[in-house]
């Protein structure tokens, strides 16, 4: 088990390295010169050259890569090429709690909706309830998250004025303020996610409910609750967990869009601004962190497998 | 009063809007502590009959006619809640599929103890102690260790033994034991059959033993019902039925299994032809396409069960009672 985790960790780090390297070169292959754009109104060719030299952008690509890489290994991701040259690590350190808070809350909301919805529609298959749940799931899936985000702002922030429309309050400043600011964006992201999970739970449960071992469990005269939570769900959740791992990626990309609507300066917003400005170090740093979240959520899913399914030996 | 009395049971399957009958007019009964063997080839409706008694017919299947009485009470149309009062603690079942009938993600211990904790009100410790006793009784070594294992760590034979332990766990008065037809080799199958019969006899538990092997049940069952194509074609006490098997299918079954009293060098003779397709309507006696003694009447009208030579048979031209099996084989 320990050896397995170690091997997976090494693999994860390799994936992150590959992604970072790819992004490094791709960014620089995209036409457009950020320094020329930045200094277009204020400086001539000399100022531009001087700025490039200062930022190290005049050296060969390989040297730049080598420098970035060796710095990154020491935890130095460089600094924004703009303004007061804020260190990338600082920008990211501020963004991560926002994106993680948002993602985790959306995740929780999605599960809290999906689990009962999936169970109800599976146990009342082809009834009015099942159809209603299916319809809602379809609706949830087909609404773009930015559109849902705007709709939520209009209803709950602008009209009802129950919740704030924009901004972010750190958890350290109180649970309730934190939650109030995140709940609308989390719903906007979590809805589509919950629809996917609910459908998945439904079909997985339907398969499990008609299995031989469920018939055995029923032959013992167990209560419906014991049947569902003691026998059906533990099996039905096995394939669902994979989907959760994949859907977590979906959730992060949802965060990129929805953070912009709600003016939350999380990783998504940092990334978008960085790309628009060709702020190389910021983009590289943000991508590195996002890929880290991806590979580690995948790793966690794989480890969970071993916990929930005794037939799987991790080695 | 019989422990179980099934009368004129019919089981239907829904085919689109229509409805097709898979089991016709089946009647059988079990007295307390008695063993009834239901014998027949694949697809004859044995498992369906047992599942109907448990109220566990799968979706699309239903009881189309007849009554099922347990200890005198008509349970045919009991709802899930009422059924759950009986399942486990009154009637238990051992299923036919050892490889898939245990939950792959729960321990053996959990699967044996949960029923009796609910039904007998035992605490965890008492239930574990009883589970260990039960596993010992069904012949599983190192039971305390096994309780912590998962089904995939056990062989097919052991899983079937675990199923028997589960069936016994809540002290039922009746067990329906469906014999595995795949996944186990013949000797293990025979061992498990005799184990089931012996344990039920020792505990005074009524037993419905479902098997293909008419030869072997003679040793364990007081009563036998032979099923063919969804109907019971011959039934009675084991003694009467073995003394004078009269249905041609029963005859065929007997000569197709090795028996202690047949000479060793005699070849086994499987019944020619294939079992009928349950979805296809066959007029008259369903056995007539395979029956050497078939006459015109056989293809027209379904023979009724009638008393002959101390037991019941449904055949237009029954084998004369004085014609013994060895004569026929010779
Ligand atoms: N859900 C179903 N839908 C349609 N037909 C079914 C269904 N379940 C069973 N049958 C049919 O009913 C017939 C009787 O089935 P049953 O399982 O009782 O046979 P069996 O006597 O137990 O056979 P075996 O010895 O192979 O277990 C079979 O031919 C089967 O094809
Ligand atoms: S009724 Fe006719 S076909 Fe059926 S077993 Fe008897 S003799 Fe054979
Ligand atoms: Mg069967």
UniProtKB/TrEMBL annotation, chain A:
<keyword id="KW-1133">Transmembrane helix</keyword>
<comment type="similarity">
    <text>Belongs to the binding-protein-dependent transport system permease family.</text>
</comment>
<keyword id="KW-0813">Transport</keyword>
<keyword id="KW-0812">Transmembrane</keyword>
<dbReference type="InterPro" id="IPR045621">
    <property type="entry name" value="BPD_transp_1_N"/>
</dbReference>
<dbReference type="InterPro" id="IPR035906">
    <property type="entry name" value="MetI-like_sf"/>
</dbReference>
<feature type="transmembrane region" description="Helical">
    <location>
        <begin position="178"/>
        <end position="198"/>
    </location>
</feature>
<keyword id="KW-0472">Membrane</keyword>
<feature type="domain" description="ABC transmembrane type-1">
    <location>
        <begin position="96"/>
        <end position="305"/>
    </location>
</feature>
<dbReference type="Pfam" id="PF00528">
    <property type="entry name" value="BPD_transp_1"/>
</dbReference>
<keyword id="KW-1003">Cell membrane</keyword>
<feature type="transmembrane region" description="Helical">
    <location>
        <begin position="104"/>
        <end position="123"/>
    </location>
</feature>
<feature type="transmembrane region" description="Helical">
    <location>
        <begin position="282"/>
        <end position="308"/>
    </location>
</feature>
<protein>
    <submittedName>
        <fullName>Peptide/nickel transport system permease protein</fullName>
    </submittedName>
</protein>
<dbReference type="InterPro" id="IPR000515">
    <property type="entry name" value="MetI-like"/>
</dbReference>
<feature type="transmembrane region" description="Helical">
    <location>
        <begin position="236"/>
        <end position="262"/>
    </location>
</feature>
<dbReference type="GO" id="GO:0071916">
    <property type="term" value="F:dipeptide transmembrane transporter activity"/>
</dbReference>
<dbReference type="GO" id="GO:0005886">
    <property type="term" value="C:plasma membrane"/>
</dbReference>
<feature type="transmembrane region" description="Helical">
    <location>
        <begin position="9"/>
        <end position="30"/>
    </location>
</feature>
<feature type="transmembrane region" description="Helical">
    <location>
        <begin position="135"/>
        <end position="158"/>
    </location>
</feature>
<dbReference type="Pfam" id="PF19300">
    <property type="entry name" value="BPD_transp_1_N"/>
</dbReference>
TrEMBL record, chain B:
<dbReference type="GO" id="GO:0015833">
    <property type="term" value="P:peptide transport"/>
</dbReference>
<keyword id="KW-0067">ATP-binding</keyword>
<comment type="similarity">
    <text>Belongs to the ABC transporter superfamily.</text>
</comment>
<protein>
    <submittedName>
        <fullName>Peptide/nickel transport system ATP-binding protein</fullName>
    </submittedName>
</protein>
<keyword id="KW-0997">Cell inner membrane</keyword>
<dbReference type="GO" id="GO:0005886">
    <property type="term" value="C:plasma membrane"/>
</dbReference>
<feature type="domain" description="ABC transporter">
    <location>
        <begin position="4"/>
        <end position="254"/>
    </location>
</feature>
<dbReference type="Pfam" id="PF00005">
    <property type="entry name" value="ABC_tran"/>
</dbReference>
<dbReference type="GO" id="GO:0055085">
    <property type="term" value="P:transmembrane transport"/>
</dbReference>
<dbReference type="GO" id="GO:0016887">
    <property type="term" value="F:ATP hydrolysis activity"/>
</dbReference>
<keyword id="KW-0813">Transport</keyword>
<keyword id="KW-0472">Membrane</keyword>
<dbReference type="InterPro" id="IPR013563">
    <property type="entry name" value="Oligopep_ABC_C"/>
</dbReference>
<keyword id="KW-1003">Cell membrane</keyword>
<dbReference type="InterPro" id="IPR050388">
    <property type="entry name" value="ABC_Ni/Peptide_Import"/>
</dbReference>
<keyword id="KW-0547">Nucleotide-binding</keyword>
<dbReference type="InterPro" id="IPR003593">
    <property type="entry name" value="AAA+_ATPase"/>
</dbReference>
<dbReference type="InterPro" id="IPR017871">
    <property type="entry name" value="ABC_transporter-like_CS"/>
</dbReference>
<dbReference type="InterPro" id="IPR003439">
    <property type="entry name" value="ABC_transporter-like_ATP-bd"/>
</dbReference>
<dbReference type="Pfam" id="PF08352">
    <property type="entry name" value="oligo_HPY"/>
</dbReference>
<dbReference type="InterPro" id="IPR027417">
    <property type="entry name" value="P-loop_NTPase"/>
</dbReference>
<keyword id="KW-1278">Translocase</keyword>
């Amino acid at each position: 088990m320990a050896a397995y985790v170690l091997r997976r960790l090494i693999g994860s780090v390799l994936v992150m390295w590959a992604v970072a390297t790819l992004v490094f070169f791709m960014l620089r292959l995209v036409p457009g010169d950020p320094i020329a754009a930045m200094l277009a109104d204020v400086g001539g060719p000399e100022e531009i050259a001087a700025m490039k030299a200062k930022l190290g952008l005049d050296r060969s690509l390989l040297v730049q890569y080598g420098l970035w890489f060796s710095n990154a290994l020491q935890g130095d991701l460089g600094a924004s090429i703009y303004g007061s040259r804020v260190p990338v690590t600082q920008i990211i350190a501020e963004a991560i709690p926002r994106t993680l808070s948002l993602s985790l809350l959306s995740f929780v909301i999605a599960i809290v909706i999906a689990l009962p919805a999936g169970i109800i529609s599976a146990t009342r298959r082809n009834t009015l309830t099942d159809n209603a749940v299916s319809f809602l799931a379809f609706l949830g899936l087909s609404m773009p998250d930015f559109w849902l985000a705007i709709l939520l702002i209009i209803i709950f922030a602008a009209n009802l004025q129950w919740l704030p429309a924009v901004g972010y309050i750190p958890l350290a400043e109180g649970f309730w303020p934190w939650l109030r600011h995140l709940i609308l964006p989390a719903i906007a992201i979590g809805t589509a996610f919950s629809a996917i999970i609910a459908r998945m739970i439904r079909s997985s449960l339907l398969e499990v409910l008609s299995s031989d071992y469920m018939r055995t469990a029923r032959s013992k005269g167990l209560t419906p609750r014991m049947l569902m939570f003691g026998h059906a769900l533990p099996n039905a959740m096995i394939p669902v967990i994979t989907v959760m791992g994949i859907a977590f990626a979906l959730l992060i990309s949802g965060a990129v869009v929805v953070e912009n609507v709600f003016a939350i300066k999380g990783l998504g917003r940092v990334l978008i601004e960085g790309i628009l400005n060709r702020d190389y170090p910021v983009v590289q740093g943000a991508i590195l962190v996002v890929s880290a979240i991806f590979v580690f959520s995948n790793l966690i899913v794989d480890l969970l497998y071993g916990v929930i399914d005794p037939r799987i030996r991790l080695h | 009063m019989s422990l179980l009395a099934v009368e004129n049971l019919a089981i239907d399957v829904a085919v689109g809007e229509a409805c097709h009958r898979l089991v016709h007019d089946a009647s059988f009964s079990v007295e307390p502590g008695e063993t009834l063997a239901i014998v027949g080839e694949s697809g004859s409706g044995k498992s369906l009959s047992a599942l109907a008694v448990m109220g566990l017919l799968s979706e699309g299947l239903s009881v189309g006619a007849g009554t099922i009485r347990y200890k005198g009470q008509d349970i045919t149309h009991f709802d899930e809640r009422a059924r759950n009062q009986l399942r486990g603690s009154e009637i238990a079942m051992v299923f036919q599929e050892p490889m898939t009938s245990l939950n792959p993600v729960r321990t053996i211990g959990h699967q044996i103890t949960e029923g009796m904790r609910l039904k007998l009100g035992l605490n965890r410790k008492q239930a574990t102690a009883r589970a260990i006793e039960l596993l010992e009784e069904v012949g599983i070594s190192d039971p305390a260790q096994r309780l912590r294992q998962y089904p995939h760590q056990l062989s097919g034979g052991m899983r079937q033994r675990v199923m028997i332990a589960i069936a016994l766990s809540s002290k039922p008065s009746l067990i329906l034991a469906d014999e595995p037809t795949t996944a186990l080799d013949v000797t293990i199958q025979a061992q498990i059959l005799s184990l089931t019969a012996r344990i039920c006899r020792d505990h005074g538990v009524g037993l419905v033993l479902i098997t293909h092997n008419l030869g072997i049940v003679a040793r364990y069952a007081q009563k036998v019902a032979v099923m063919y194509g969804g109907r019971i074609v011959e039934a009675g006490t084991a003694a009467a039925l073995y003394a004078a098997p009269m249905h041609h299918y029963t005859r065929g079954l007997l000569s197709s299994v090795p028996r202690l009293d047949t000479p060793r060098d005699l070849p086994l003779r499987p019944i020619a032809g294939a079992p009928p397709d349950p979805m296809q309507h066959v007029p008259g006696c369903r056995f007539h396409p395979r029956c050497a003694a078939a006459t015109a009447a056989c293809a027209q009208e379904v023979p009724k069960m009638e008393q002959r030579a101390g037991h019941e048979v449904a055949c237009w031209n029954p084998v004369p009672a004085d014609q013994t099996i060895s004569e026929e084989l010779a």
